[in-house]
Amino acid sequence: MWKEIIHIEGPYDFDRVLERHALDPLNQLDLGKRTIKIPLCIKKESFVVEVAGLGTVEQPVFQIESRGPKTFILERVKETFQWNVSLQEVNRHFQQTNVKKLFTNHYGTPLVLDFDPLYCLFKCIIHQQLNLTFAHTLTERFVKTYGFEKEGVWFYPCPEVVAKLTVEQLRELQFSGKKAEYVIGIAKLVVDGSLNIEELKQKTDEQIYHQLIKIRGVGAWTIQNFLLFGLGRPNLFPLADVGIQNAIKKLFNLEKKPTLEEMELYKQGWEPYLSYASLYLWRSIE
DNA sequence: AACCAGGGAAGAT
DNA sequence: ATCTTCCATGGT
C-alpha cells in the first residue's frame, strides 16, 4: 500500500466532482470525508484506488492511495479527474461570451470522466433515449449482475464476459432487444481486437468519429458523449442532445427549443472549449 | 392517458 | 444525402 500527495493549479472544485459521482449508485464515496474509491483495470488486472480531497478550490490537494502499479495508476487518476486541464484558462476564455454567467455558477467544475473509456461506451449505449433515473437503474443492474466487486467497489464486466451474454439475459434486466444487441456487439468487437480503446486515445476527434460511427448502435450522440466523458476531449457540443437544447431554451428564455441552426449561432466564440459550455448547460437544468 | 427521455436503425424520399 | 417511422421502457 502506497500513498501520494498531489498539488494542482486551482480553481478545481472537488466537492462538485464528488456530488456528480454520488448520482451514480454504483460509486463508493463519502461526501463528508471527501473520499472516493474508484475501480481501475490495468492490463486485465483490477485495482481499487482511493482518492481524497484535502485542499480548497483555489489550492487543491489530493491524496491517492492504492496497492497497484504506482506510476500507471497516478497517470490514470490524473487523467480521470482532469488534473492536467487549466480551468483557470477555460474560465477566462468564457468571460467575454454569452454564457459568462454559467461559468460563474459552475466555477472550478471540471469534466467528470468515467473511470474507464469502455465503461463510458457501455453506459452511453445503455443511457440512449432513457430518462436519467431509469438509466442509472439499468446500468446498476448490468454491473451488479455481470460485473464484479472488489474492496466494496463495483467493476463493470470485462468485454470477454459481455461478449458471451445473450440478448435474452440482458432483456431480463429490462434492456430493449436493440440495446442488448448493441452492448454485446461492442464487447465482441473489443474481444476480437477490431476495437482497441487504448489506441483510440491517440487519435483526433474526427478520426474517432469515423471509426466509431460504423459500429451498430453508435450514433453521433454516443460518440460525442464518449469523447466528452470517456476521453475528456475539450471541444464537443452535442447539438442534437435534448438536454442541451432544453438548457439553451431556459438560459436564453426562448419560447421553444432552438433549432439546430440557432444552436450553431449560440455557440459562437465558445471554441476551443465547447465541452465546458456543454457540461454547464447540462448541469443548469438538473 | 399521452407524451417525453441527455438516440439510432431501417426504410422512404 | 435528408426526412420519417419504428423501436422499447420507465417517468411525469
Question: How would you describe this structure to a colleague?
Answer:
The chain contains 15 helices and seven strands. By secondary structure, the chain is α+β, with helices and mostly antiparallel strands. The termini are far apart.
CATH level-4 homologous superfamily of the domain at 117-230: Hypothetical protein, domain 2
Number of strands: 7
Percent in helix: 40-55%
Class by helix and strand content? alpha+beta
Name the overall outline. globular
Q: Return the string of H and E elements.
A: EHEEEEHHHHHEEHHHHHHHHH
Identify the notable features of this structure and list them briefly.
DNA-binding, 47% helix, 286 residues, five-stranded antiparallel beta sheet, globular, alpha+beta
Can you lay out the helices and strands and say which pair or pack?
Layout: E1 2-7, H1 14-22, E2 28-30, E3 35-42, E4 45-53, E5 61-66, H2 70-80, H3 87-93, H4 100-105, H5 117-127, H6 132-146, E6 148-150, E7 153-155, H7 159-163, H8 167-171, H9 177-191, H10 197-200, H11 205-212, H12 220-230, H13 242-251, H14 260-266, H15 274-283
Antiparallel strand pairs: 1-5, 2-3, 3-4, 4-5, 6-7
The structure holds a DNA duplex (13 and 12 nucleotides).
